[in-house]
Design goal:
The protein is built from 14 helices and twelve strands. By secondary structure, the protein is α/β, with parallel strands linked by helices. Helix 4 runs parallel beside helix 5 and helix 6 packs across helix 13. The chain starts with 15 loop residues before the first helix and ends in a 14-residue tail after the last helix.
Length: 376
């Protein structure tokens, strides 16, 4: 089950008071589109390195993530120093990405050690490397994806026929989910061109709000906060993807690690996971303070905060969780196969939850399962 534990202590850590006091100003976040290059962040920011303490087997660990609310574990864990605290004297070298493929490329190329990333790029990266480049070592988030539409043109799901609906990128997590939903309705769409009974328009999330306002698209199947930004611009929520999944949970963000780094520095990976587990616990116990912290982190990364009208509904729709919800990743892979976007993948060994379960057990929390896809 996802870790939604509460903590006995609610004492804010460094930087939280300032984060909580920040006004929620106008902004839109450029986040989940796939295809752009990585950006190295300022190593002197909060959480970039622990102040003191012994080093583990590596002097530094390079951690990648998106400036996106579905990566709240990374945003808050680094902002509040919760991950750095567990690493002692081992420094964090953070890198931000706007694209799953570029993060996978960095990890495969040896310039990234650990990353927060969605299920589709995790699957694609693992399969393309023939199972040699990465392992999923933890979950991070569930939910946070919605189908939002122009209410003047679309009032029911059947009204989508003949309309133009945006997804972030061909074959990305939301694109796969939308194509699967279309197929379940018996409609036909060519997965390569996006043409068919519904026009699937692959559009970078940075561009989608303007495309919607200009009428270039009639709606979008997108992650937060893009979905809530569109609602603030006049769209309405036609469907929350959470409602399509058993127990209303599905993986949207994993924690992955390079197999080389995992083999050579398991103590560092374990320390990072201690930090993510404590971060998720703190977020779930202090949602309002954590929301302000995440927004402050977004301002550091993007120069912009999210307006309350966007931030509040977006934050409510995301569940941070240690559980990778492995069965849902397998289902998402099956959806991609049915959509003819990928061949049937061999996902055996994509998970290694040994260190996570060790951390969870030591913290008195339930262990999590790998759905039979664990490393042997």
């Amino acid at each position: 089950m996802p870790a939604t534990h509460r903590t006995a202590s609610k004492t804010p850590r460094r930087g939280l008071a300032a984060a909580a006091a920040l006004p929620l100003l106008i902004a839109a976040l450029a986040s989940c589109g796939y295809g752009s290059e990585a950006e190295r962040t300022d190593d002197t920011k909060a959480g970039a390195a622990a102040d003191s303490g012994r080093k583990l087997s590596a002097s530094e660990v390079r951690i990648g993530y998106f400036p996106n609310l579905t990566h709240a574990t990374a945003l808050v864990g680094l902002q509040e120093g919760l991950i750095a605290k567990e690493l002692g004297g081992t420094a964090i070298k953070p890198q931000t990405f706007n694209a799953g493929p570029s993060e996978i490329e960095a990890l495969s190329g040896g310039s990234l050690d650990i990353g927060f990333i969605g299920p589709s790029p995790s699957i694609n990266g693992y399969v393309k490397s023939k199972g040699s480049n990465l392992r999923i070592v933890s979950g991070a988030a569930s939910g946070g994806v919605k189908l939002v539409v122009n209410p003047e043109k679309i009032k029911t799901p059947d009204d989508l026929r003949g309309k133009k609906i945006a997804t972030p990128q061909k074959g990305n997590t939301q694109d796969v989910a939308f194509l699967n939903w279309i197929a379940q309705k018996g409609w036909k769409v060519d997965p390569e061109s996006g043409k068919g009974d519904v026009s699937v328009v692959r559009t970078d999330n940075k561009v989608t709000p303007d495309a919607f306002k200009q009428g270039s698209v009639d709606g979008a199947w997108v992650p937060e906060p893009t979905a809530s930004k569109l609602v603030a611009d006049g769209a309405s929520v036609l469907l929350d993807e959470t409602d399509l999944w058993p127990d209303k949970k599905f993986v949207i963000t994993n924690v992955i690690v390079s197999q080389k780094f995992l083999k050579e520095h398991p103590d560092v990976v374990e320390a990072v996971l201690k930090g993510t587990v404590k971060t998720n616990e703190w977020i779930n116990a202090n949602p309002d303070e954590a929301k302000a912290s995440a927004n402050a982190a977004l301002k550091k990364e993007t120069g912009k905060e999210l307006d309350a009208a966007v931030l509040d509904p977006a934050w409510k729709s995301i569940l941070v969780t240690d559980d990778p919800l492995a069965a849902t990743l397998k289902t998402q892979a099956d959806h991609a196969v049915k959509a003819k976007l990928i061949e049937q993948p061999d996902l055996a060994g994509i998970y290694d939850l040994t260190l996570l379960n060790k951390v969870l057990k030591e913290a008195g929390k339930p262990e999590v399962a790998d759905a039979g896809l664990g490393a042997k």
